[in-house]
């Protein structure tokens, strides 16, 4: 946890929701959503870069805060309802929304539900934009088994690291993602499977948004895959509201690995919004 922030909680929809709130800008909030089986610590390296100029809210999904009391199954619908209720309680009128990995599914639902008047832009960080590659799909299955989930998680970690020695990313695996057990990992993989089955891919989900805000996908993985880059190029040509940046980083966690670059991408989107409003 970043020293300067304090973990806060509210009881929302019958469950404890943890979050923190930093900065004192009177502009739109920067709202940060993590993926599954990790929490707001994902943005520890970005927070000192954001808080001097923005009102920053980092959100934990239900079951991802300090309380590990038993929970029933939940999914994207509950994540959206909880997050929206929290933001309403904090009187967030407008936001710059950021998601990481499969936190992109609830982020897209929020963008669709609230419209571009409230979600001014959405920056998605390193989510698989195609249908699930075979090795990822098999990992999702293995993670759901009590006898196979630990080995499957190790395989995911190794893939996400991409050979990097970055201390912040390694520490995130050990102290944050390592604190979640089979229930959350297994549940997350079921929910992610269902999202791909329902929508096909995040890009297909974007196309269903009736009035999308500016959406940018920034990513490093998969590495050295020209077809994946061309997919983004073609999608951007077809949809004026979409853009992308190949970060050329090492890991699946640019938020921790190259936080200044990630924050720079957000500031670029905010600057473009300001220019278009003139």
Helix/strand-derived category reads alpha/beta
Would you list the SSEs in sequence order as H and E? EEEHEHEHEHHHHHEHEHH
Compute the number of helices. Answer: 11
Radius of gyration: 18 Å
Order of strands across the main sheet: 1-2-4-3-5-6-7-8
Principal-axes geometry comes out as: globular
Helix content: 40-55%
Average of per-residue pLDDT values: 96
The strand count comes to 8
Distance between the termini: 39 Å
Largest sheet: 8 strands, mixed
* Beta-strand proportion: 15-25%
As residue ranges, the low-confidence spans are none
Could you characterize what this model shows?
By secondary structure, this protein is an alpha/beta fold. It has eleven helices and eight strands. The chain has helices spanning 47-50, 76-89, 104-114, 134-143, 149-161, 167-176, 182-199, 202-207, 226-238, 254-257, 259-277; strands at residues 8-12, 15-22, 29-33, 55-59, 95-100, 119-125, 215-219, 242-246. The protein has an eight-stranded mixed sheet with strand order 1-2-4-3-5-6-7-8, with helices on both faces. Helix 4 packs antiparallel against helix 5 (149-161) and helix 4 (134-143) crosses helix 7 (182-199). The longest helix has 19 residues, at 259-277. It starts with 7 loop residues before the first strand and ends with a helix. 41% of the residues are buried. The mean pLDDT is 96.
